[in-house]
């Protein structure tokens, strides 16, 4: 039996992991393939996961939760925070990441077969960006592409940020992750706030609500294997037609508050129309969508093999390849960790590989350039082992990635038919 190993990196990644495993625990009795994410020994089940950070604050917070039986190799931390990509990859984070690789190896040795790594982090911070970069390169070398790395990653928001060097960290991380991660599902805090405002009327929104959104998306993805015993590797790989065009935008809905006594379950057509709206995207772009590929992953305990097959909203969506959205079902109840959320009969995630993402890459590149033109904070990176030439290389890579997505927008159907060897 194959298994997935979860890696939660840095403060944001650890918080997401904490929420995710609380959700997995609620789902445990209903899931049929728990050994996909747990090691089961003598009636106990231990998460196949590693939480690591360069400082100890968030790690200790997760360890206080005694309702989940983690293994001793599931936690690792250093003594000081890595604020920059350079500190995360070359100095402060280097030793911690090397220890993390050993912890991962010890847990993987208990598996019959490793299917994939599920990675959560934020690349705005130094730990998430730098440690992810070094770790993903080492894992790729050690496993020789036999196990996929799928990232569920928080990107810098276009309008709000609490880290002035966030654009530096994110661009450097993007530059190094291109060869190692098979897919990158993207989130940003501002977009998630917008989705919560659109779907709910909450007086106060904090990181728990944002982490819950990410956890729900990941749970439904791994739920394809845990509840359906379906090979979920095809789900993400089918969304990534070219090696570099692998950045996915998720949508999630419908959320409802438990004290909303007027709540109603959406019917199939209403649900699909609702979920495919731009307002439900957890990573929102300023221009209209241009779909390359997409997939609807709906979650409902009762099996419904014909769900969405004849829906006009899905069938009328224009795709680069002229195909319709693939449809998958996670046959499970919709559990909630946060007490204010109601457990709905039907929820879903809509994944789109969308060429409009080039507009967000352009915004990120321009933010990077604004700081770099003034040579601001260069000493924070040069003093930790990063060379000047790497600033230009990272910028040029992001510009070429932006060009890859723009070239898809300019590619017409006649070119598709005549370009069997076209590569991005």
TrEMBL record:
GO terms classed as biological process: microtubule-based process
InterPro entries per the UniProt record, alphabetical: Tubulin, Tubulin_CS, Tubulin_FtsZ_GTPase
Protein name: Tubulin/FtsZ GTPase domain-containing protein
UniProt organism field: Paramecium octaurelia
Ranges for domain Tubulin/FtsZ GTPase: 33-229
MF-aspect GO terms: GTP binding
UniProt similarity note: Belongs to the tubulin family.
Keywords: GTP-binding, Microtubule, Nucleotide-binding
Annotated GO CC locations: microtubule
PANTHER family: TUBULIN
